[in-house]
Amino acid sequence: MPDRDGPYPAAVKEEIAREIAQVHLESYGEPVQNVAVEIGERFIGLIMDIVLSPVEQLLVGGGSREKVRVGREAYQEVIEPVFRAIVERASGRRVDGFASRTVIEDEAPSWSTEVFRMAPSA
After folding, report:
1. Which one of 55, 78, 107, 111 has the fewest CB atoms closer than 10 angstroms to its CB?
2. How many CB atoms neighbour CB 70 within 10 A?
3. Dihedral angle computed from the Cα positions of residues 107, 28, 64 and 108, in that order, rounded to the nearest 10 degrees
4. What is the pLDDT of residues 16-56, one digit of tens each?
5. Which contacts (CB < 8 Å, 24+ apart) does range 98-106 have?
6. Rounded to two decimals, what is the model's pTM?
7. How many CA atoms lie within 13 A of 107 on its CB side?
8. 73-101: pLDDT as tens digits
């Protein structure tokens, strides 16, 4: 049943946010924070603040910010099937594309975004 958030109940957004956050915690040993999920007709997007692991913090402090970004984005490529399954199960729709980007910040929280291109509705 549609709610004020559009054709998807708020519970769908909450499920996606919770499960993606759990995968990040299990993978990095650090939580994500401030996870926001937006759902459009052709996409589902997430944006979240990330907490760098102690090793990543050391690398960034040593001038290897780009290596941390590349490593995180390589991980996102490998974990893509898990992320797709989470989004497909929660939304009841097929994902036909995925993109991910990580931004490592000096002062503000570092953050990541995941965008799922959804197959057209039947």
Report:
1. 107
2. 12
3. -10
4. 999 999 999 999 899 999 999 999 989 999 999 999 999 99
5. 100/73, 100/76, 101/73, 102/50, 102/68, 102/69, 102/72, 102/73, 102/76, 103/69, 104/52, 104/60, 104/65, 104/68, 104/69
6. 0.88
7. 0
8. 999 999 999 999 999 999 999 999 999 99
